Amino acid sequence: xxxxxxxxxxxxxxxxxxxxxxxxxxxxxxxxxxxxxxxxxxxxxxxxxxxxxxxxxxxxxxxxxxxxxxxxxxxxxxxxxxxxxxxxxxxxxxxxxxxxxxxxxxxxxxxxxxxxxxxxxxxxxxxxxxxxxxxxxxxxxxxxxxxxxxxxxxxxxxxxxxxxxxxxxxxxxxxxxxxxxxxxxxxxxxxxxxxxxxxxxxxxxxxxxxxxxxxxxxxxxxxxxxxxxxxxxxxxxxxxxxxxxxxxxxxxxxxxxxxxxxxxxxxxxxxxxxxxxxxxxxxxxxxxxxxxxx
Length: 294
Known about the structure:
Aminopeptidase; alpha+beta
């Protein structure tokens, strides 16, 4: 095993991966500042910065290789986690081969299933701005709006929050930030940027939960898509949580279609918390095994 990166241009094909990883994306990950790459003859792990957090990518030539190598490689990679700067470690599972055999290995490394995600694509951006409801206006956001946006974002996601480090990352990468107001009060916002593929990207968009059910989310997203079109993007993508009420419905009503999807797994960066959870599980197992005599 070595911590040296393989040649960037080399394409490594592994039968078992957490998600499809073409040579271009793999090379992009390896070129990023702060990326850590561990490799052996039969597998690799990549720890890279994404959306303000650290993400893990792995690939092995077989399940047997993964069983033998993943945990020791993970223990080594864990020393490079930047606990003071991130909220969690993320891993996407999409099109995973031998899924039932993979999951116990990830659980042993203290990863937990978090939530499903779906990437929606708009193939033909609107040429006209939306017609807003009475009292609704859209304006360019200023720095003074960020605290309000953060509160709206956190409230709208609830238990599905992506963490404040992700919000800060989106804010720093946004080419455009729009504030949706109702009678002058900010009730929603959107951040737009550019995806790696060159498509326009709605990094995030949210409406305060107290204003859900009035169609404001649709107007907000339509305005964000229009802005991307006016910035000469031909297409736009947005990643949504289907568990967030109305998210898929709103995207579908605006002509967006399913492009990709998967399930995000997360691992805490609090090792003491993990130790307590493992001990609680161990005790629960002992109780279940020896708790009754009848």
